Please model this.
Amino acid sequence: MIPLPVEPDVAIAPTRDPVSQAIVAVVLIVLFVTLSLEKAHRVLVVTAAAALLLLVSYATPYHLVTFEVAKESIDFNVLVLLMSMMAIVGVIRPTGAFEWAVGRLIRTAGGSPHRLVGLLAGFTAVVSAFADNVTTVIFVVPLAVQLALRLGLAAPALLLPVVMASNIGGTATLIGDPPNILIGSESGLSFLDFLTALTPPVLVIMLGLDLATRWKFRSELAAAHPPSTPVAEPRIADRPLLRASLLISGLVLVGFLTHGITGVPAALPAGLGAVALLVVQDVLYLRRREPTLAERSHGVLRVIERDIEWPTLAFFTFLFVVVGAAVATGLIDQIAAWLHQLIGATERGLGLGPSGTLLFAALLVLWTSGVLSALIDNIPFVVVMLPVIGSLTASLEGPVTALWWALALGACLGGNGTVIGASANVTTVGLAERSGVRIEFGEFARFGVPIAVWSLLVASGYLVVYVKVGAMAAALSMLALLLLGLGVVPAVRRRTAG
Model:
């Protein structure tokens, strides 16, 4: 009998020696530094890192990552969920719904700059919780710049609260920010888990953002004036498609809310919803027009070519491969072991019990994530931390879900600290520059760092109650803090208006 050929990739086992781990660690550090410097496109950086690891694996005795390991490392749940949500937003985009909603906000504000800033930030936060925050700022920022010009208002007084709100609002749900999508896929936490656990601190943080905005930009807001002519309200361009989009998006949301019960991955309702919307879009188009060559490119091809951010999906794909090498070589296990040692030494040194140890670990994860996410891209950091947190949850006692919430809160909220801390920040600054408005690194940080610190302090208080008393008590404590803050708002409004 002729023996079957052995797959070369199967025959190669990843090496788990210190040299292999050191090589992967150096590649990760260089990856983080290069991404932070923004000297090359992030897709090129992560692709080069993955290619280097594969080259070393097949050209040297140090087998860091094989094709088999690379394939297993790619999280298709994350990729399909991201792609599907991009497609859904891409179908809704031409209906004019986003522009119409912002126009309604402007009319509701009645020409009051103070009211307008709050409404615009609140709208951005809500939309960012259910659509990715980058897409949200792409719609809101150009309109905010035009509005600032009409009001005679310094554009940063509108733009900075808007971008901060996009990052804060995106923290509240599983689909609002890419780090949460990653965390949800790894931890098995549902959309409803994210919504119920993270919305309470997010509401308190948003209230703090509103008060900080009114205080920081009080002179700019006082000097602004209502436009001499009313702002024209944008119209809905395609009502039938919008109605269908709202119905299907509602069904997708139901799928998100119930996937913890049904066990269906979050990517499935999103994918089915995206396909259904693309079909409805095409059917409605053909009812009004004869099939032509233009018809072939207006719908699914337009969404695929223009609305799905393939560079972002490629970035995630190759990043999974790089982190797969860190897992395969045992580097992640080593990092987890060091973290365990630090937590154990603190536990012994301070005489902490199980809940105290868990709380220390949660606060350590929160503040480390928050600080590093202000300095480097939070997505690769979260991908590296996922298996580390998974190891911690298996070894600590108590409500260990707090560790996942700590990672989500730190990674999403810390990004408000600097321009490079989140993709929405970079996008906002770039769009503003196209409109002739320059927001410098220092100007962003002077407003963003206090907001990030405030956010992490609120998150710390939330985690303390969550670990020590329970999830319900933590949510109620945030509600009490929110009500207390709402009592302060009228006084701040009078001070800033005066």
User: Anything to note?
Assistant: The chain has a mean pLDDT of 85. The chain has 24 helices and no strands.
